[in-house]
């Protein structure tokens, strides 16, 4: 599918919040970051105008309203092809940073499993912890995939790495169950 980048529409939010307490600014900032919005400057955020962002934008507006702030929401597009290309580039760079962080966490997960195998820590408690970590990676992958609406190159690598993490966790689970079900050695 070819995307006509000049035709991509953007939602721009202009957010104004009271100076205190800071927890309100942090809550709005976290919600916008969670959905993958780009900060264009103090209180100015943007996302592509696609349905996947609608609920998060509504939550951010609601948080700002509850804090006594205001949000002005604008529909926008690049005025020139260069403007469109610049927004696309900023958005793609943000998604690449997201995927790089995800890939780094996949590496940490695999290292943790390798360490547990190396020291022969084959317990149900450890397996449960590793399964929780894998589920966190799966949720994160789903979230990143949803917000990577233009499909950056790192998405395919991240999908493959998640499959490798899943296989590594399955291997570790088999080792745990084998260790738990092996008959104790008989002394002769």
Task: Write a structural description.
With 188 residues, this protein is an alpha+beta fold. The chain contains five helices and four strands, in the order βαββαβααα. It has helices at residues 22-35, 54-66, 81-118, 124-147, 154-181; strands at residues 10-16, 38-41, 44-48, 70-76. A four-stranded antiparallel sheet has the order 2-3-1-4, with helices on both faces. α1 runs antiparallel to α2 and α3 packs parallel to α5 (154-181). The longest helix has 38 residues, at 81-118. It is elongated, with a radius of gyration of 22 Å. The termini are far apart. The mean pLDDT is 93.
Kindly list the characteristics that best describe this protein.
188 residues; alpha+beta; four-stranded antiparallel beta sheet; 4 strands; 62% helix
């Amino acid at each position: 599918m070819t995307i006509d980048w000049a035709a991509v529409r953007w939602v721009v939010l202009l957010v104004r919040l009271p100076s205190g307490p800071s927890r309100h600014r942090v809550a709005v900032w976290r919600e916008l970051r969670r959905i993958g919005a780009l900060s264009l400057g103090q209180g100015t955020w943007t996302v592509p105008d696609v349905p996947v962002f609608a609920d998060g934008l509504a939550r951010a507006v609601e948080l700002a309203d509850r804090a006594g702030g205001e949000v002005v929401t604008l529909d926008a597009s690049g005025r020139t092809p260069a403007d469109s290309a610049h927004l696309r580039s900023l958005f793609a760079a943000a998604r690449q940073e997201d995927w790089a962080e995800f890939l780094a966490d996949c590496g940490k997960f695999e290292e943790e499993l390798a360490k547990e195998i190396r020291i022969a820590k084959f317990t149900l408690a450890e397996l449960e912890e590793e399964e929780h970590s894998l589920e966190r990676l799966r949720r994160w992958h789903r979230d990143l995939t949803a917000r990577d609406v233009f499909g950056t190159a790192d998405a395919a690598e991240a999908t493959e790495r998640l499959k490798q993490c899943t296989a590594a966790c399955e291997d570790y689970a088999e080792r745990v169950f084998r260790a738990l079900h092996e008959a104790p050695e008989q002394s002769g």
